[in-house]
Design brief:
The structure holds two protein chains of two kinds. By secondary structure, chain A is mainly alpha-helical. Chain A has two domains: about 35 residues; about 60 residues, no CATH class. In chain A, about 70% of the residues lie in helices and about 5% in strands. Chain A is built from three helices and two strands. In chain A, strand 1 and strand 2 form a beta hairpin. The longest helix of chain A is centred in the N-terminal third of the chain and has 23 residues. Chain A is flat and about 40 Å long. Chain B has one domain: MetI-like (MetI-like fold). Chain B has twelve helices and two strands; from the N terminus they run αββααααααααααα. Chain B has a two-stranded antiparallel sheet. In chain B, helix 9 packs antiparallel against helix 12. Chain B is globular and about 75 Å long. The chains are: A mainly alpha, B mainly alpha. The interface between A and B is medium-sized, with 27 and 32 residues.
């Protein structure tokens, strides 16, 4: 199958693979422990672990955008690291 | 509430998942792929990394389009929501007039976007349009092809004409679900019209109103066809909203890389606003129930 028209690169392929495996991992987690562990967190709304993943991913996207706006396109690993910390915080407290 | 534990349902979701993957996720990934590369056509791509994102995020052109977009959505929401509520309150509650009003209200919603654009484009013209000609005869300085204010007024009035009915119909549905007993109780207590509105009608309309605000926000934030047909984004760039700018960039200039980066930023903003809105609504609903 020729997918050249889509302009795939290793990086974007990895990106899709990471998101897909996160979703699969969440599905497995949900099957193992159903219910999504809802709780009322720091932000004042009830969130399940799916909500927390969504908040993490959306927040990470904006962290990267902010990094690119303020620091330019250099050292994006820092933004990724920040997103990781942010994700941990979200899963711990939101 | 105890949830049913039945994991077989996951397999029933599988066909939908495959369909969505084919029709949405994979095409969306094409946009992601383009956003980090440059292309001069001929299916050749050159890796540029985050260059387009940096360019798009710092572009004055897009900041301006974003500002115009927010202003447009803000203005039409500020007009359509109160106007829609007011009309819904004034609509007849029973008898033959109900059907007549509902049909009249539904009419603008049935007209395709580009037809609405064409109607207003001709309606507002000074030489052959009824509105433009009348205004000119009254001595009003109105020309939507050359004057920024006229262009904005035309586009906003057109959107209000097209979409207020949606708010009206949603509010009307909310209002007709209020039992008569509420009104009788209010009458016995000697409640004023405002008190009835504030404490009975508005709370009962809250759910449909949030849907109306969300729908109108999303729709107006992504508006393309109507202003494109009426003003083409002009005069100058005065009514160039985000979608119009995006299409200019992607198809007009064939800058697929920057256009893809811009699409992703646009998508993320829409996603964020919708999520915040949805969360606020569900949180307040949960509070109402508890």
């Amino acid at each position: 199958m020729d997918l050249a028209w889509m302009g795939w690169t290793t990086f974007t392929g990895t990106f899709l693979a990471v998101i897909a495996s996160l979703l699969i991992a969440m599905t497995v987690w949900e099957i193992a422990r159903p219910g999504g562990a809802p709780r009322k967190g720091l932000l004042g709304f009830t969130s399940t672990r799916g909500d927390r993943l969504f908040v993490t991913l959306l927040g990470s996207a904006f962290i990267h955008l902010a990094w690119m706006y303020f620091a330019g396109g250099v050292d994006l690993w820092w933004a990724l690291g920040l997103s990781g910390l942010y994700g941990l915080a979200v899963f711990r407290w939101v | 509430m105890q949830r049913t534990k039945n994991q077989k349902a996951w397999f029933l979701v599988l066909p939908v998942f495959l369909l969505v993957a084919f029709s949405a996720i994979i095409p969306l990934m094409t946009v992601v792929n383009y956003s980090v590369q440059d292309s001069f056509g001929n299916n050749e791509f050159f890796w540029v990394g985050s260059e387009w994102f940096v360019e798009v995020l710092n572009s004055d052109r897009l900041h301006d389009a974003f500002g115009r977009q927010l202003m447009f959505s803000g203005i039409i929401l500020a007009i359509e929501i109160p106007l829609g509520i007011w009309i819904a309150l004034k609509m007849p509650k029973k008898g033959w007039a109900v059907s007549v009003c509902l049909v009249l209200m539904a009419l603008p919603l049935l007209i395709p976007w580009n037809v609405v654009g064409t109607i207003w484009q001709i309606f507002a013209r000074e030489d052959i349009g009824l509105l433009g000609h009348t205004l000119a005869a009254l001595g009003v300085d109105y020309n939507y092809t050359q004057d920024t204010l006229s262009a904005w007024i035309t586009v906003i009035v057109m959107d209000v004409w097209h979409w207020t009915s949606l708010v009206v119909l949603l509010c009307y549905a909310g209002l007709s679900s209020i039992p008569d007993a509420y009104y009788q109780a209010a009458k016995i207590d000697g409640a004023s019209k405002w008190a009835v509105f504030r404490h009975i009608q508005l709370p009962k309309m809250k759910r449909v109103l949030t849907i109306a605000v969300l729908l109108r926000f999303m729709d107006s934030f992504m508006i393309y066809t109507e202003p494109f047909v009426v003003t083409g984004g002009g005069p100058g760039n005065a009514t160039t909203f985000l979608s119009i700018d995006l299409v200019k960039m992607a198809i007009g200039q064939f800058d697929v890389g920057p256009a893809a980066a811009f699409s992703i930023v646009y998508f993320l903003v829409v996603l964020l606003v919708s999520w915040v809105f949805y969360t606020v609504v569900t949180a307040s609903d949960a509070e109402d129930q508890s």
